[in-house]
Amino acid sequence: MSKIESFTTGLDGNRIFGIFELPEGGDSFPVVVMLHGFTGEHIVSTFKYPRLSRKLVKRGIATVRFDFRGSGDSEGEFCDMSPLTELRDALEIVSLVREKSWFNGKLALIGYSMGGMVASLLAGREREFDAVLLWSPVIMNGEFFSREEYSFSRDEKYKDILGLKLGPGFQRDGLSVDASAELENYHGPLMIIHGSEDESVPYEPVMRYARERGVEFHAVKGANHKYQRLDWIEELFEVSERFLCDQLL
């Protein structure tokens, strides 16, 4: 069993919604902060974050999963969202964790897809994390944000992306930073997991980056971006749990 505490933080009309999940026994724990991807929320497709959270909690690690502003149950507008607004949201959550009496001082990040870009920026700027785990991360962000579907003409106010209004700040902010370069400022334990058949975030550039930098890299052979097969997702969880427990316990 675990203790689940929902929370909001921020001013009315602009609040972040999230969930702390804590081990049932003990007074203090290491914490993993989970960052979701583009058009996602704190549960993530096929419930990846709750499922991994329950595995970690059994090992004595607390987790926090939350919705970036403009996504999921958090307030704010999706059209105002960009990687840099999400970076500010993540910093706010990290600060909140550090204030908790049950936080034992050890802190890790998981970033999935665009959340992997946010985690890379956060780790590169803050640096004081005990582990960083990236799932299928958008760290080669120049190529990703240059896509035509995110480009705006002078007269466009928003784009229709999956029934959501995407604003021009998304591409502008996405091209204003280099996540792979900023991640090089982080020198702690770092692991990247990537599906070899990822249709959304190309596998080869991320694999080459990891190889050239000497980053621990695990390929899930045949897996797509969402790891939508039992053996793929079980491998994702097994490798993730082992890495995080090795660094935090």
From TrEMBL:
Gene Ontology molecular function, alphabetical: carboxylic ester hydrolase activity
UniProt keyword annotation of Hydrolase present: yes
Domain of life: Bacteria
A Pfam family per the record: Hydrolase_4
Record-linked InterPro entries: AB_hydrolase_Est10 (IPR053145), AB_hydrolase_fold (IPR029058), Hydrolase_4 (IPR022742)
Entries under SUPFAM superfamilies matching the protein: alpha/beta-Hydrolases
Name assigned to this protein: Putative hydrolase of the alpha/beta superfamily
